[in-house]
Specification:
The structure is a single chain. This protein has about 180 residues and is α/β, with parallel strands linked by helices. Helix content is about 50%, strand content about 15%. It folds into two domains: about 130 residues, 3-Layer(aba) Sandwich (Rossmann fold); about 30 residues, no CATH class. Strands 2-1-3-4-5 form a five-stranded parallel sheet, with helices on both faces. The protein has a two-stranded antiparallel sheet with strand order 6-7.
Length: about 180
Amino acid sequence: MISESKKTILLVEDMAIIAMAEASTLKKNGYSVIIAGNGNEAIKIASENSILDLILMDIDLGKGMDGTEAAQIILKNQDVPIVFLSNHTEKEIVEKTEKITSYGYVVKNSGETVLMASIKMAFKLFDAHRLRLESENKLLESDRKFQTLEKQIDDVIWTMDMNFRFTYVSPSIEKMMDLQLMKC
């Protein structure tokens, strides 16, 4: 499910022949692809390109930093879905990725169908995550507006549950109660 505009994937792979094959598969499936050969290059490209829609990150990038380290640095600066790609299925390698906000782990040579399904799933999860954050922010903003409003009005507002217990009473009741106590 690729949207009308072509999505851009940063493919981070240290082996050129594998990178070319994976890029070809991604392009064939409608994606625009940028290739990085190591972690440092991936960090540089990610920091210079706000158009990245997803990062497909090999874990073993040869000498230097590995894919999990590069992913952590990238995620400190931008919110982008990352799908890890690796030949490794060992517990300790997989666990390294669990500490990082990622949207999938694909074993290399799983096939085009698995890779494309994983990428589509990552996009859906990322969109759902963004929508949830937006909803939470709107709710917080609405709550701030309500609190400001309730402090400004003198009317008494309350809510009750099904057992006729107060679940909310506006602060203005305190003002009213103080006035009644003063009159007594």
